[in-house]
Design a protein that fits this description.
elongated, 11 strands, about 30% helix, Urease, subunit C, domain 1, four-stranded mixed beta sheet, single chain, four-stranded antiparallel beta sheet, about 200 residues, alpha/beta
């Protein structure tokens, strides 16, 4: 089914399956696809972010289950705290799934990483639908679920053009300047390959 996603500025994307069918003003796409379902989002539609610290966030950190918050907190655990957990494959896989969900909640549509060595993490991430992009070296900056808080220039997915993969995010802000000021935690939806993988309730 073809769906038109539109934001508060009237910018719109027509999505059919995993691909962008059209991009432009809502009025033009609505006229071109009169039978499409229209989904109106608050804020702005953007290409979505490529988080540069995929390896660090997925394979070198543990994302506590909410039920563990009393003992472990809510932030990703690394270093000695991670080593002390002595994780088995089940917990590694669950951590990776939670890590991906938390990345999606920050408008991440792809993560740059080295080949994942941990099979449990690799299998879990593959099932989530998150796009993995290769990288040749470790980036600087600070690994963060919010790509705007890493200290590195933000990297976004390629522009959305007809025939390209339907990968984008929606942020509840007025424009890109406000997004930079408030951060990617303002994300309300993340779409990858046409699938709505995150929606803030």
């Amino acid at each position: 089914m073809l769906t038109i996603h539109t934001d508060s500025r009237g910018h719109a994307l027509a999505v059919e399956g995993a691909l962008i069918a059209g991009a432009g003003p809502l009025e033009e796409l609505a006229a071109a696809y009169p039978h499409a379902r229209v989904r109106t989002w608050p804020g702005i539609i953007t290409p979505g972010f490529v988080n540069p610290h995929g390896t660090e966030l997925l394979e070198e950190a543990y994302h506590p289950d909410p039920r563990e918050a009393g003992d472990l907190g809510t932030e990703p655990l690394t270093g000695d705290a991670l080593t002390a957990l002595a994780l088995d494959d089940v917990r590694w896989g669950a951590s990776a799934r939670r890590g991906v969900q938390r990345m999606l909640a920050h408008g991440t549509v792809a993560a740059a990483c080295e080949p994942l060595r941990n099979r449990a993490v690799r299998d879990a991430v593959r099932r989530t639908g998150l796009t993995l992009a290769g990288r040749s070296e470790r980036p600087g900056g600070v690994p963060s679920l919010d790509p705007l808080a890493s200290g590195l220039p933000p990297v976004t997915a390629p522009p959305r053009t007809p025939g390209s993969a339907a990968r984008f995010a929606v942020f509840d802000v007025h424009d890109e300047t406000e997004l930079t000021e408030r951060g990617a935690g303002t994300c309300v939806a993340t779409v990858i390959e046409g699938r709505l993988l995150f929606r803030r309730r």
